[in-house]
Design goal:
ten-stranded antiparallel β-sheet, isochorismate synthase, Anthranilate synthase, about 30% strand, binds the ligand C=C(O[C@@H]1C=C(C(=O)O)C=C[C@H]1O)C(=O)O, alpha+beta, eight-stranded antiparallel β-sheet, Chorismate_C, 9 helices, isochorismate synthase activity
Length: about 400
């Protein structure tokens, strides 16, 4: 790690207005994260951990802390881990951190300014995605693959540089209760990963650990009775319950050695985004060893079958062979971890990457033997709406 002067002390539970924090974010200056437990704005780069290995990150944070006055807030590392656990992660120890209450408690005004106009390209074409699902189903019949999550992407070439600030405010306006994020990515030109995810990978606060896998989805309806019917059909769906149970079993198995008193609900509950119903299970426990940080937990769980599959290695191979693009940070995890081990990591879903006049966005769906290609394509189209709506684009 490189080191510079110690960061100024920021009070842990600053009574900052969460909307002011959101309004202070701009690409190239730091990261903004917001979820049901609070929001966080970071600025500048004090140092970068030498690797994203959790032990190295915690060591780096403790070194930063050692140079700070007693009672200062613990140093933290913020950033993103890619889908591929072997690909380079992006973590920085920021110069300054500001915290605020959850954004979900306040109304975020609809941003002004023109939405994006430009050209959209599907990667791959929608029919090709259906063929990809069919290929996954064929592999399942022959090689013991129980679940694989297949994604597709959209590439937007806009008529002018894309306003990432407007997109983030639009996401916050539409779904302030989701896990919102805007994180600068490394590269020669400024790149921002931004999104509104429904899924918490894992959080640690003191000894308390929460993981909240989500899998199994149904499009919502603007008509209340139909909306309710779809939610109940999802809860009763044998296919979706199976798809969900595979994820919960994997998360529980990987958490078990790290967590005491793991509580795993017997059945999932429903959660809603503005566009989708999902099956959700909240697992809770307490870290067995205080040195197991939120980042250790995230590394142990990622990539869960909510974004990869079962068995993990076979699903990862199938994804690499079938998907015609590199996922990068999509279906990776975004968050922070501090010197005491607290932190929160959310799944990089319903997200896009903004770079100049380009935006890349992705959505995927869990494929199990009972999946049908046309239904999975439709599900990805609904998932893509989150970012398309933030862009003000109509297609897909
Ligand atoms: C892969 C995505 O979402 C994941 C897959 C889901 C599913 O298959 O039902 C639901 C939530 C997420 O865990 C995505 O949004 O792109």
């Amino acid at each position: 790690m490189t080191s510079t002067s110690p960061a100024p002390h920021t009070p842990r539970a600053a009574a900052t207005d969460p909307v002011r924090l959101l309004r202070s974010w701009a690409p190239g200056r730091g990261s903004w994260l917001s979820g049901p437990r609070g929001s966080l704005l970071t600025r500048g780069t004090l140092t970068r951990p030498s690797s994203a290995d959790p032990d190295a990150v915690v060591r780096c944070l403790r070194e930063v802390d050692a140079g700070r006055p007693a009672g200062a807030e613990p140093a933290l590392a913020v950033g993103a881990l890619p889908f591929d656990p072997d690909a380079p992660a992006h973590l920085v120890v920021p110069e300054r951190v500001e915290r605020a209450a959850p954004l979900g408690t306040v109304l975020v005004a609809e941003p002004t300014g023109a939405p994006v106009s430009g050209v959209l390209r599907s990667v791959p074409a929608p029919e090709r995605y259906e063929a990809m699902v069919a290929e996954a189903l064929a592999r399942m019949a022959s090689d013991g693959l129980a679940k694989v999550v297949l994604a597709r992407g959209l590439e937007v070439v806009a008529d002018a540089p894309v306003d990432a600030v407007r997109m983030v405010r639009e996401l916050a306006h539409r779904d302030p209760r989701s896990h919102l994020f805007a994180v600068d990515l490394p590269g020669d030109t400024p790149r921002t990963l931004l999104g509104a995810s429904p899924e918490l990978l894992v959080s640690r606060e003191g000894a308390d650990v929460v993981a909240n896998p989500i899998a199994g989805s149904a499009a919502r309806s603007p008509e209340p009775a139909e909306d309710r019917r779809r939610a109940e059909a999802l809860l009763a769906s044998v296919k979706d319950q199976h798809e969900h149970a595979l994820v919960v079993a994997d998360v529980a198995e990987r958490l078990a050695p790290l967590v005491d008193g793991l509580e795993v609900p017997d059945a999932p509950s429903l959660v809603a985004t503005p566009t989708l119903w999902h099956l959700s299970t909240e697992l809770r426990g307490r870290v067995a060893d205080p040195d197991v940080s939120a980042l250790h937990l995230a590394r142990a769980l990622h990539p869960t079958p909510a974004v990869c599959g079962v068995p993990r290695a076979a699903a990862h191979t199938a994804i690499t062979e079938i998907e015609p693009f590199d996922r990068g940070f999509y279906t990776g995890t975004v968050g922070w971890t501090d010197a005491q081990g607290d932190g929160e990591w959310v799944m990089a879903l319903r997200c896009g990457e903004v770079e100049g006049d380009r935006v890349r966005l992705w959505a995927g769906a869990g494929i199990v033997p009972a999946s049908r290609p046309a239904d999975e394509l439709a599900e990805t189209a609904v998932k893509l709406r989150t970012l398309l709506d933030a862009l003000g684009l109509d297609e897909a």
